[in-house]
Specification:
Strand order of the largest sheet: 1-2
Radius of gyration: 22 Å
Number of helices: 17
Structural class: mainly alpha
Largest sheet: 2 strands, antiparallel
Oligomer: single chain
Number of strands: 2
Low-confidence stretches: 1-9, 91-115, 117-121
Length: 442
């Protein structure tokens, strides 16, 4: 008898991580299809789209979360958001340690891919820190929102709303229990502070907050933390002033608000494109200049190892510094008198180019199969890639192919940069050196 040899299929940690997210999407879709999850029967595509949007913490929807899903269905969505935002391996590592198990090499590699790290030895402490930090921030945000909404709705409804919005905000998901998102609270200080505070905290990245907790002084912070905090403040303030100026007289956005309302609305709309997905103004009524700025902010995204996506703010900073270094004829790309490694620069350019290529390919496919306004199509595609969740109304106009395309973008936007970062962080050296050739460019 001939012995049959079974070929062993070996998957890389990023591939296993991607399969884990796919499995979570399938489980979430199955739960959302249960009769107790919705008030009326929803289709398989509706459930799959919702689960994908929740796991990838995007917020784009094809059915209304507040009216079409029951409390059970909304709770399932909240759990999917939490797992997707904090990362599967955060809960896996904590669970393994809780039952007395050991974190093996493979688990460490997968966790490192999920956390966007190359240091395997710190994955356990990182997972614990992420979970504790998330629960503290979400609890504080939930408390603030409960106090604000307690008088406007029954205690039970106020408690569930604050629970759902705290998870959705901190994880930068953008899922809301109203078809108008947070537009009724456009000038409400408590809602604006609580919600923007949570998604800014989540979008900065856990590395920054761990660094702040340990060092507690600006000078002792790592260069990464200082750049992330400084860049976030600059981008948010500049975006706020730009939106305030361009939308000031627009009757469909800021024009009908008083000065306090204009400032709160400008602040909210300036910070939410960093993959948060909530809105307090009608996005479809923006001026084209505001829409263009929002697209740029959605593409940039938030910080590494955060609940935000996009190409990541530090990637964008490295690209800017690289361009400046070339124009100024510098041999090194410097940041706070430190040279940025060449591998980091290559990684940033690879992420930027691949991300733009994916966006343009999907945009070509979307506009080829749909009669849709071009600016709306660009907005939808970049929003899906950046897992933002903002929409100018194009989501409801998508056919099955369009929904699958957006689902693919959401999945890649959440999984792709992490997987790509892990692969590019793995050294692949060659001992062969080839002669150089000058090629004219530009």
């Amino acid at each position: 008898m001939k012995r049959k040899h079974l070929r062993r299929v070996e998957l890389s940690p990023p591939s296993i991580l991607a399969l884990g997210f796919l499995t979570l999407i399938v489980i979430g879709s199955s739960l959302l299809l249960l009769p107790i999850a919705s008030h009326s029967s929803i289709t398989l595509m509706d459930a799959l789209f919702t689960a994908t949007s929740a796991v990838t913490v995007t917020g784009l929807i094809v059915v209304d979360t507040g009216s079409d899903y029951t409390i059970f269905g909304q709770t399932v969505i909240a759990i999917l958001i939490q797992f997707g935002g904090l990362g599967l391996m955060t809960f896996a590592v904590i669970t393994i340690k809780a039952i007395g198990g050991k974190i093996g090499i493979l688990h460490q590699q997968i966790a490192a891919a999920d956390f966007n790290q190359t240091n395997f030895s710190t994955v356990t402490s990182t997972a614990k820190s992420i979970l504790i930090f998330a629960l503290i921030v979400e609890s504080l945000g939930m408390l603030l929102l409960f106090i604000r909404w307690y008088g406007d709705m029954p205690a039970g409804d106020a408690l569930f709303h604050s629970f759902f919005y705290a998870i959705s905000a901190f994880n930068n998901a953008g899922f809301a229990l109203s078809s108008k998102s947070l537009m009724p609270f456009v000038a409400d200080p408590v809602v604006n502070i609580a919600v923007t505070g949570m998604f800014i905290v989540g979008g900065l990245g856990f590395v920054v907050w761990i660094d702040l907790y340990r060092e507690r002084t600006w000078k002792k912070l790592s260069i990464y933390s200082r750049v992330m905090i400084g860049s976030t403040v600059i981008i948010n303030v500049v975006a706020m002033l730009f939106i305030f100026a361009t939308e000031y007289s627009n009757p469909a956005t800021l024009g009908s608000l008083d000065m306090s309302g204009k400032l709160w609305a400008s602040w909210f709309q300036a910070t939410t494109p960093r993959t948060a997905g909530f809105n307090t103004l009608d996005i479809s009524s923006y001026n084209d200049s505001t829409t263009t700025l929002t697209i740029l902010l959605m593409f940039i995204g938030g910080g590494s190892m955060s609940t935000a996506s996009g190409i990541k703010l530090m990637t964008f900073v490295v690209l800017i510094l690289s361009t400046y270094a070339y124009l100024s004829k510098r041999q090194e790309i410097r940041l706070f008198n430190r040279a940025i490694p060449e591998d980091t620069v290559r990684k940033s350019f690879a992420i930027g180019i691949l991300s733009m290529a994916l966006i343009w390919i999907c945009l070509l496919l979307l506009t080829s199969t749909h009669r849709i306004n071009f600016l709306d199509a660009v907005f939808e595609v970049v929003s899906a890639f950046g897992t933002v969740g903002l929409s100018r109304g194009a989501t409801s106009e998508l056919n099955t192919f369009g929904q699958l395309l957006i689902m693919f973008l959401m999945f890649f936007g959440r999984i792709g940069p992490l997987t790509l970062g892990y692969m590019l962080a793995t050294p692949k050296r060659s001992h062969i050196r080839h002669p150089k050739v000058d090629i004219p460019v530009g």
